Amino acid sequence: MAVTARSAGRSGTLGEIGLGRVAAYAAMLIIALAVQSTVLAQLTILGVVPNLVLVVIVVLAYLDGERVGVVLGFFGGLLLDLQLEQAIVGVSALLYTLIGYGIGTVRRLSTKESVWTPVLVIAGASAVAEFGYASLSIILGREWVGLQVTAKRAGLVVLYNTLLTPFVFPLVRRVANRFRPERVLRW
User: Fold this and answer.
1) What is the pTM of this model?
2) SS (H, E, C) 111-176
3) Which of 90, 139, 164, 182 is most buried, by the most CB atoms less than 10 A from its CB?
């Protein structure tokens, strides 16, 4: 007999989500940041590092909706901003929060399940993140390198992130399914 978190009498947001799920999602973000800043930083394409943190955020927002996307987008972006040396703290947090919300909403509105949907969603989110970061950096007074360089960088990040999708999506989905609220308590 399976007992869900709601029927077990837990109250509040944390009881509804599950502490194991929060810990698993936080661990995935930290592991993605560590892999991105160590292993993937050595495996660049023309000097561009893939954005594994964004890929994990997009996959989880796609799987679990906008609430998860917003929270993970904020914390993942903030971790990334704090890790980068010349980043404007808060820009990635803002962008990833908006992207997480957008992807969660798109998932709720989409009707068809396709193998290509996660790849296209990650490609679109990667392009939005790169152009959004460049735009916000300009607004906040950073020197702009130009549209051609920004487009080239965005294209490479989109390519790299979409190449990572077939490997990252099934792994993240497996962990997310393992910690669903329905599976928290088993009798």
Assistant:
1) 0.85
2) CCCCCHHHHHHHHHHHHHHHHHHHHHHHHCCCCCCCHHHHHHHHHHHHHHHHHHHHHHHHHHHHHH
3) 164
